[in-house]
Structure to design on (678 residues):
DNA sequence: CTGAAAGCGCTTACAG
DNA sequence: CTGAAAGCGCTTACAG
């Protein structure tokens, strides 16, 4: 019943002894590309297998220039998009042989200490997946001296990578389907006015509308991407202007809020009376209860690109940060009246 | 424009030199409880501050019996409960000074390799937050020799901690409110029949019903906790038996599926014609669109307890694993017809 | 290709 | 309380 912690720690020395070679030989066998003869490699591998040996990643990291640990810095999961993006990211990191270490910045706590604690482990790079992250936290990442890859967020410096969805394209895709299907009076519901993503999505929407000779009837920024914000925005917006027949929301959760508000309080039918279009394509969008037509953020493509950049930064030398926009995709379901 | 990686690595030696003390003294200053005179501590601290010194956690881990890294082993985020639990867990780990390292087991990939890779970093403990985790992965954790804390899942051994919601209590809470508010024909919608949680919730529900002299009208296991599963279950269940007026679902997402199926296809009003009660209390439950009455899983209490157990396992000696059930809480909203 | 030696940055007994 | 020394488990030049 009682449990005794009993981890046998096999080391290079043990394997070397059993294989009858030097510790260097063992080390080389586990270092891809290092020179070892087929014979010794064989003997080392079989000894290692017999002993159940695996190199201690901590010790290895101490002598190498990298640790294979990637810090993911984020705020709270206050929006279904975040866990979704996060899941794709960790999955890709694993495939690339990286171990994700999590840094969740608590809005009630110290904005920088958790970041320093991750840095103590000599993480190779900081992936900042941060909508709701305090500016101080972001600043700490940038000043850390460690490569930073920002997700979907703008930064005032040009020394970090930024990867984000092509928000202008997204806005244009929303505008196009709405106009092509005969909508006349359109509105945009954004998140935080200050955030790049909300700004760009709105700009892309308006610009495409302009190009088709249509003006925007109304625009509102909610301060967040949350369901509640969307719910309230819909109420106030549609009370003001009842002829709006199409709304583009800067996130799916905003769109869900809009849809529910419309159903509960306004007595309008979606999409018959009003079309709603979201952005993200979180799994919930395909639930029959919503059937949300939306602009998909390509989380897997984003994650893949992040992995590429991690590899890029991992080789020493003069480096050039990039700002990369990943194309979005229109997903047609039932919340937009067609034809 | 070009970015040069330029991390200055200050070491104990640098600080020792500046402070005019030995490296041991520096080390002791950063080791809580170690003997250092106020004077040297002062000098060390100020030197450290001037240099921006922080102990290298990797090197430190190499000489100590612990690393402060906690592995979180999980499957996919296929259910809103998981990110919610995960968020609470990581938050508490940070508060306890632990760094979470993520191990997501890909169903398409190797079920054990990612776990070994985490073990290579000498994680202190494995927190297995695993509904959908393959048995092989779970076995690998248990055999690792590292303390294991299982979340909401049963195990065939008695050498690991298990912490989970009090599922019997949850079932009883659901039964009680349903019966007290005059429901007559009740059904249970579970997840996987084989899983402890789904089984226990159903048992608790039936047992409480029994005690009140009521039988269960119908029971179905969906194989998962997903929205889709709930949607389909509702369709087939209610087609079979139209007089059911109360359904207890083993998860909120199951309940959302049931609600939407009922609204879309059965023309029943919730809660007027049919009451639905969920389990988890994920944030979405409080969205006006659902207003789900549910049994809350105390994620923060669970996370707190996990932290306690991590501390417990961290001190050496004869150890005793525990199975801890955390009380659940009824959250009343609008999906159950009252009185 | 191979091994002995030095070193990564820290902590822990060990004498004082 | 303090410092010199040894050691954690590995890798990397350095000779051969």
């Amino acid at each position: 019943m009682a449990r005794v912690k009993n981890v046998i720690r096999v080391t290079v020395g043990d394997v070397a002894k059993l294989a009858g070679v030097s510790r260097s030989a063992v080390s080389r066998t586990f270092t891809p590309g290092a020179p070892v003869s087929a014979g010794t490699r064989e003997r080392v591998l079989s000894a290692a297998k017999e002993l159940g040996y695996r190199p201690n990643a901590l010790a290895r990291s101490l002598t190498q220039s990298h640790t294979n640990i990637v810090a993911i810095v984020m705020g709270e999961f206050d929006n279904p998009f975040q866990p979704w993006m996060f899941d794709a990211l960790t999955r890709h990191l694993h495939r690339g042989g990286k171990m994700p270490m999590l840094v969740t910045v608590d809005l009630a706590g110290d904005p920088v200490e958790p970041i320093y604690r991750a840095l103590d482990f000599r993480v190779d790079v900081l992936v900042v997946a941060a909508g709701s992250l305090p500016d101080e936290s972001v600043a700490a990442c940038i000043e850390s001296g460690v490569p930073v890859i920002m997700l979907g967020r703008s930064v005032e410096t040009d020394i970090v990578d930024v990867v984000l969805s092509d928000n202008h394209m997204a806005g244009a895709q929303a505008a196009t389907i709405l106009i092509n299907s005969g909508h006349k009076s359109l509105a945009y519901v954004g998140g935080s006015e200050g955030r790049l993503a909300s700004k760009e999505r709105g700009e892309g929407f308006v610009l495409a509308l302009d190009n088709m000779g249509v003006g925007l009837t109304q625009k509102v920024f909610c301060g967040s991407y949350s369901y509640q914000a969307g719910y309230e925005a819909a109420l106030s917006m549609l009370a003001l202007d009842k002829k709006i027949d199409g709304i583009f929301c800067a996130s799916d959760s905003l769109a869900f809020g809009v849809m529910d508000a419309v159903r509960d309080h306004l007595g309008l039918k979606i999409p018959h009376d009003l079309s709603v279009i979201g952005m993200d394509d979180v799994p919930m969008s395909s639930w029959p209860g919503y059937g949300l037509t939306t602009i998909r953020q390509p989380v897997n493509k984003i994650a893949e690109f992040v992995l590429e950049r991690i590899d890029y930064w991992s080789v020493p030398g003069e480096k050039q940060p990039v700002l990369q926009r990943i194309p979005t995709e229109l997903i047609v379901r039932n919340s937009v009246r067609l034809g």
Remarks:
- Residues 9, 11-13, 23-24, 26-28, 30-31, 34, 55-56, 58-64 of chain A lie near DNA strand D (CB under 10 Å from a C1').
- The longest strand of chain A covers residues 69-74.
- The radius of gyration of chain A is 25 Å.
- Chain A has three domains: 12-55, 69-165+299-326, 167-298.
